[in-house]
């Protein structure tokens, strides 16, 4: 036996077991387990990462995201700036998606970071923090649909910012919607996104009636965009905002 | 096309939201603690003044942090549970050197910006009041190095809001013979003296920035003298010999502080002493203080006693 190398299994090996065959589900079959305008249940917990100034963990079935906020702390670059800086960094864990995510060689995380930065930037009172930096680190532990990851990531990041005691104009809440067979499907999963014509993420400050960001991929007519935004907006106001508020109030109560 | 309906009050059932001034007038003396969220309307800006943690939009005072609403007369503030330290002149802080720069050190003091310790505001070896020399500038690392802990007082603020520290007192300077605990700054109250000695042979320095230094007790007469004090000892990086019982007392006190901070109990020296006695009475060692049920019992017993 070769002791200098890592040897494979000596005798037997097993055929890998896959979760489900990927092409079993079709859009025509309808949605599994929920209505078109229903979202997956949200679990949101602020303050799980003790070494960070603020943190939040969000889980919506197979989407799991942890977010840590460090700061406001002194900017490392020496140039003076009147406004604070908001850095957003998104990382996928290698095992987050069905196909392995290679760290560093991945370009997806940067585009997600830009989208989440856009969603958050106008909610943070950066004018109060000269020379300072706020670092937001988002780790996607499990990903079920990129757009819903952006939505869940923005919610987690905003909760973490509030948990860190950073001054905000309001909480950022976001929701994703896909257009599938000319119908609006809220909070699409990976396989639903794959069959959709276009997907949209709406981020807003429900408390102030302000939209911070709309991120749109795929093809949609103007009317469909409006339908999607309205569906997202209703869901945000009716449900998601109160989930975030509840989570924060409970953590502030202790 | 897209019209947002006004922000509905989400938690009317469990906490009522202030509507203009009717809810504010409940009782002037009683502090009603209400929890609020960023973006939530607190009251009208015509009747009340906005304080920290709030901003005004459309003649309404709106919260900008998640925390408890506090009111002093007409001033409404929102206090977040965990925030960075807000320095004031005269505060005692414990900090850590992060950088050595020309004629100054940068100090991390749990604030929004790094604090500055000028070479001219430390005690230089060899004399009470002596001018700094070029040689002092060249050997700044012999006084404080990156990573060193120190206790200092906030002397002034720079134009950009960064704080300037000074250590021109015998009580201030480099820290050794102990352990640092970090707790939310909100839990450290302003006390008559932030240097306390517990009877168990432990000295405490309660930094207002939430950094607490727990160390071996030093006798008054053994402290380094004012006249011609010796730079070797004051800027030394070596710990004195610390015996077993002092070590366990130090770790017991640090774990008590951690347990109290986890339950958001504001620290005072009497409370710490009471907690220490409780652990000795119940024969609890330092390690088991970190377990949840014992720290719960500790908090329950001292909260019941006071």
Automatic annotation (TrEMBL), chain A:
The protein's organism comes out as Mycena indigotica
- CDD domains, alphabetized: RNase_PH_MTR3 (cd11371)
One GO CC term on file: nucleolus
The record's similarity note reads: Belongs to the RNase PH family.
Q: GO MF terms on file?
A: RNA binding
**Designated name of the protein:** Uncharacterized protein
* Keywords assigned: Cytoplasm, Exosome, Nucleus, RNA-binding, rRNA processing
Q: Which residues form a coiled coil?
A: none
Q: Which Gene3D superfamilies match?
A: GHMP Kinase, N-terminal domain (3.30.230.70)
Annotated signal sequence is none
Location of the Exoribonuclease phosphorolytic domain: 39-167, 170-230
State the superkingdom: Eukaryota
What does the UniProt entry say about where the protein is found? Cytoplasm; Nucleus
**Gene Ontology BP terms:** nuclear mRNA surveillance; poly(A)-dependent snoRNA 3'-end processing; rRNA catabolic process; rRNA processing; U4 snRNA 3'-end processing
Automatic annotation (TrEMBL), chain B:
**What SUPFAM superfamilies does the database record attribute to this sequence?**
Eukaryotic type KH-domain (KH-domain type I), Nucleic acid-binding proteins, Ribosomal L27 protein-like
What's an example GO cellular component term for this entry? nuclear exosome (RNase complex)
Instruction: Classify the source by domain of life.
Output: Eukaryota
Q: Which residues form the K Homology domain?
A: 178-218
**GO terms under biological process:** CUT catabolic process; exonucleolytic trimming to generate mature 3'-end of 5.8S rRNA from tricistronic rRNA transcript (SSU-rRNA, 5.8S rRNA, LSU-rRNA); nuclear mRNA surveillance; nuclear polyadenylation-dependent rRNA catabolic process; poly(A)-dependent snoRNA 3'-end processing; TRAMP-dependent tRNA surveillance pathway; U4 snRNA 3'-end processing
Print the keywords alphabetically: Exosome, Nucleus, RNA-binding, rRNA processing
Q: In terms of one coarse class, where is the protein primarily found?
A: nucleus
Question: Is the keyword NAD in the record?
Answer: no
Listed GO MF terms = RNA binding
In this chain the RRP4 S1 domain maps to 84-155
Tell me which residues make up the Exosome complex component N-terminal domain.
35-72
Pfam families with a match to the protein in the record: ECR1_N, KH_6, S1_RRP4
Nucleus keyword on record? yes
Task: Provide the protein's localization.
Answer: Nucleus
- Give the similarity note: Belongs to the RRP4 family.
Q: What is this protein called?
A: Ribosomal RNA-processing protein 4
| Biological source species | Mycena indigotica
């Amino acid at each position: 036996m070769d002791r200098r190398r890592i040897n494979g299994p000596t005798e037997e090996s097993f055929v890998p077991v896959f979760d489900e065959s990927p092409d079993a589900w079709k859009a025509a079959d309808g949605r599994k387990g929920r209505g078109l305008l229903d979202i997956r249940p949200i679990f949101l917990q602020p303050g799980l990462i003790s070494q960070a100034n603020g943190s939040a963990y969000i889980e919506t079935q197979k989407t799991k995201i942890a977010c840590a906020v460090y700061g406001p702390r002194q900017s490392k670059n020496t140039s003076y700036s009147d406004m604070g800086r908001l850095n957003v960094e998104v990382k996928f864990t290698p095992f987050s998606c069905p196909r392995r995510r290679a760290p560093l060689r991945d370009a997806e995380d940067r585009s997600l970071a830009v989208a989440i930065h856009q969603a958050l930037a106008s909610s943070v009172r950066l004018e109060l923090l000269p020379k300072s930096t706020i670092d937001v680190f988002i780790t996607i532990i499990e990903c079920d649909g990129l757009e819903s990851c952006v939505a869940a990531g923005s919610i987690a990041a905003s909760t973490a910012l509030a948990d860190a005691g950073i001054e905000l104009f309001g909480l950022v809440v976001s929701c994703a919607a896909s257009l599938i067979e000319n119908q609006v499907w809220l909070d699409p999963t990976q396989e639903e996104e794959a069959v959709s014509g276009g997907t949209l993420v709406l981020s807003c400050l429900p408390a102030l009636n302000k939209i911070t960001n709309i991120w749109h991929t795929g093809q949609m007519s103007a009317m469909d965009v409006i339908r999607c935004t309205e569906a997202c907006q209703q869901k945000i106001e009716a449900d998601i905002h109160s989930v975030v508020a509840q989570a924060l109030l409970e953590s502030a109560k202790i | 096309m897209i019209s947002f309906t006004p922000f509905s009050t989400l938690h009317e059932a469990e906490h009522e939201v202030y509507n203009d001034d009717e809810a504010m007038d409940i009782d002037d003396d009683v502090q009603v603690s209400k929890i609020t969220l960023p973006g939530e309307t607190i009251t009208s800006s015509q009747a009340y003044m906005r304080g920290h943690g709030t901003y005004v939009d459309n003649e309404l005072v709106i919260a900008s942090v998640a925390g408890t609403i506090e009111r002093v007369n007409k001033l409404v503030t929102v206090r977040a549970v965990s925030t960075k330290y807000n320095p004031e002149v005269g505060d005692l802080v414990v900090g850590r050197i992060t950088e050595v720069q020309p004629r100054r050190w940068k100090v991390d003091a749990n604030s929004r910006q790094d604090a500055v310790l000028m070479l001219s505001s430390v005690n230089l070896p060899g004399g009470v009041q002596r001018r700094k020399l070029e040689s002092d500038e060249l050997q700044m690392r012999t006084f404080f190095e990156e990573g060193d802990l120190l206790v200092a007082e906030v002397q002034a603020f720079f134009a950009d809001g960064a704080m300037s520290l000074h250590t021109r007192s015998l009580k201030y300077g480099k820290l050794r013979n102990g352990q640092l605990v970090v707790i939310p700054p909100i839990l450290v109250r302003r006390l008559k003296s932030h240097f306390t000695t517990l009877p168990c042979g432990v000295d405490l320095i309660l930094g207002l920035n939430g950094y607490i230094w727990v160390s071996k007790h030093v006798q008054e007469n053994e402290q380094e003298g004012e006249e011609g004090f010796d730079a070797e000892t004051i800027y030394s990086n070596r710990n004195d010999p610390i015996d077993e019982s002092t070590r366990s007392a130090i770790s017991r006190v640090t774990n008590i502080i951690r347990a109290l901070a986890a339950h958001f109990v504001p620290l005072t020296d009497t409370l710490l002493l009471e907690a220490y006695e409780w652990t000795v009475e119940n024969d609890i060692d330092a390690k088991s203080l970190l377990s949840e049920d014992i720290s719960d019992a500790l908090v329950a017993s001292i909260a019941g006693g006071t």
